[in-house]
Design brief:
single chain, 415 residues, seven-stranded mixed beta sheet, four-stranded antiparallel beta sheet, 42% helix
Length: 415
C-alpha cells in the first residue's frame, strides 16, 4: 500500500485529536452522570481498567491512577519539595510563588507566572506581545495547539489572527519565514510539534528560524508544553534553549506528571502584564497548592530522568520496526525514526477500532500494554490509523527483545 510521507503524517483526525480525552476521563459528548447509551463509555472504562491492571507498560500516565493512588503519591512526595508546616497558598503566594521562582531559574528567564491551564497562558502571552508589537497577527503551524485543540480561541477570545508559513508536517524553515508574504508580529514555535509526530528541528535550524523572525522585527514565543524533553535532541540545556525565545510556556502535567497547570516565563515586565490578564481571564485561583506541589514533585523526580526516557525511546522505536517487519504486517511507519523525544507515532494500515481492540485484548490477556488508543488518519487513503507511544519510567525496564515479542503478540490479535 503506497503512501507519501505527507499523506501519512498529516493532520490528526478531529475525533482523535482531543487533548488527553482518553486519558483524562469523560469522552467528548458523553454525559457525565449517566451511562452512555452508545456503549462508548463502557468501552472507555474497559480500556482504562485494562491499562490500569496491566503489569507491564511503556509508561504509566498518572491520570490512569485511581484517586486514592494520586492522593497518596502527592502526600508521599510533598514533604521532599517544600516545608509542609508553612501556610497554604492564597491567590498565588506561598508554594505557588516558590514554583514560579523555580521555573524562572530553570529556564534562565527573569520571571515566571503560574497559570491554571496552558491554553490560558499562551493566549495571554500572545495577547501581550500583540499589544507590544502593534500586530495582532501570529505566525504558527496549522497543527499547533491553538489551531487544533482550542476551538478557535485566539480569534474568538483574544482577537488575534493566525497565519501559516508552512503546512508541511514539520516546523517552518528559515527560508519560509524570510519569504512569507504576510507581515506578523509574533512567531510561535511548538517544541516539539506534537500533532506532526513530536518532531523537532535541529539546533542549527532552530537558531536560523529565530534569526529569520528577528530580521522581520517579530518576537518569538515557544510553546514548550513538552520543552523538558527537548534538551537531548538539541544537545543544549534548558536555559540555552529558552534564551532563543522572548517568552516560553511550559506544562506541568504533560511530561512531569503533575495534576494540572502551566507557567509562562519571560521578561519581568511581560510577566507582570501577564498576571493582570491572568486575573481578567479568571485565572487568579484562590488556592492551587495541590497542582503546585505536584509540579515541584515532577521537577524533582521526573525531570532528571527524561534523558534516559529519550534514549530508551530510540531502542523501543527500532525494536517496534523490527517486530512489525518480522510479523509480516506489510506497510507500517514509526515516525520519526529515530524519535526526537521520548514520544513518537506508529502508523498501520488497519482501522482504528480494530487496532484499539487488539491493544485492549493484549492488555487483558497478557498483562502487557504496548499501544493504547488508535485514531484514524485524516489524510491519505482510508483505513490508515496511528497511535502515540510514550516511553517513561516503566519503559526503561524493557529490552528490545521484549518489545519485539510484544509486537508479535499484538499482531496475533489483529488476525
Amino acid at each position: 500500500m503506497p503512501h507519501t510521507d505527507q499523506q501519512v503524517q498529516g493532520r490528526r483526525a478531529r475525533g482523535g485529536a482531543r487533548e488527553g480525552a482518553e486519558e483524562i476521563g469523560q469522552a467528548e459528548g458523553a454525559p457525565a452522570h449517566e451511562p452512555d447509551p452508545s456503549g462508548e463509555e463502557v468501552q472507555r472504562l474497559r480500556r482504562l481498567n485494562a491499562w490500569h491492571a496491566a503489569e507491564r507498560v511503556l509508561a504509566r500516565p498518572p491520570m490512569h491512577l485511581s484517586l486514592g493512588e494520586r492522593l497518596a503519591a502527592l502526600a508521599a512526595g510533598a514533604g521532599s519539595v517544600t516545608d509542609l508546616d508553612r501556610p497554604a497558598d492564597t491567590y498565588g503566594d506561598g508554594v505557588v510563588a516558590e514554583l514560579e521562582g523555580r521555573i524562572a531559574d530553570l529556564l534562565g528567564m527573569e520571571a515566571a507566572a503560574f497559570f491554571p491551564t496552558g491554553t490560558m497562558a499562551q493566549q495571554v502571552a500572545l495577547r501581550c506581545w500583540a499589544g507590544r508589537t502593534g500586530s495582532p497577527t501570529v505566525a504558527l503551524h496549522p497543527l499547533a495547539h491553538p489551531e487544533v485543540h482550542e476551538r478557535g480561541a485566539l480569534g474568538a477570545v483574544t482577537g488575534l489572527r493566525t497565519v501559516h508559513p508552512t503546512s508541511e508536517p514539520r516546523l517552518p524553515t528559515a527560508r519560509e519565514i524570510q519569504d512569507f508574504a504576510e507581515p506578523f508580529g509574533t512567531l510561535m514555535l511548538e517544541l516539539p510539534l506534537r500533532d506532526a509526530g513530536f518532531v523537532l528541528p535541529t539546533w542549527e535550524e532552530l537558531e536560523a528560524v529565530v534569526a529569520a523572525a528577528r530580521e522581520r522585527d517579530a518576537v518569538v514565543h515557544f510553546d514548550g508544553a513538552r520543552l523538558w524533553e527537548c534538551a537531548p535532541h538539541f544537545g543544549r540545556e534548558l536555559p540555552e534553549i529558552a534564551a532563543l525565545a522572548d517568552s516560553v510556556y511550559v506544562s506541568f502535567y504533560k511530561t512531569l506528571g503533575g495534576i494540572s497547570g502551566a507557567a509562562l516565563a519571560g521578561p519581568e515586565s511581560l510577566i507582570e502584564e501577564a498576571r493582570t490578564w491572568r486575573h481578567r481571564y479568571g485565572g487568579q485561583v484562590f488556592q492551587q497548592f495541590p497542582a503546585a506541589l505536584a509540579a515541584l514533585i515532577g521537577l524533582e523526580q521526573e525531570l532528571p530522568l527524561l534523558p534516559s526516557y529519550v534514549a530508551q525511546a530510540t531502542v523501543v522505536a527500532e525494536a517496534l520496526a523490527e517486530g512489525f517487519s518480522a510479523a509480516g504486517t506489510g506497510w507500517f511507519r514509526v515516525h520519526p525514526e529515530p524519535p526526537h523525544t521520548h514520544q513518537f507515532q506508529v502508523w498501520l494500515p488497519y482501522g482504528a477500532d480494530v487496532l484499539t481492540e487488539a491493544s485492549v485484548r493484549q492488555a487483558e490477556e497478557t498483562g502487557v500494554v504496548l499501544f493504547r488508543r488508535w485514531y484514524p488518519a485524516a489524510a491519505g487513503p482510508p483505513g490508515v490509523s496511528f497511535t502515540e507511544v510514550t516511553v517513561g519510567r516503566e519503559g526503561l525496564e524493557w529490552t528490545a527483545a521484549e518489545v519485539r515479542e510484544a509486537v508479535a503478540e499484538f499482531v496475533k490479535r489483529l488476525t
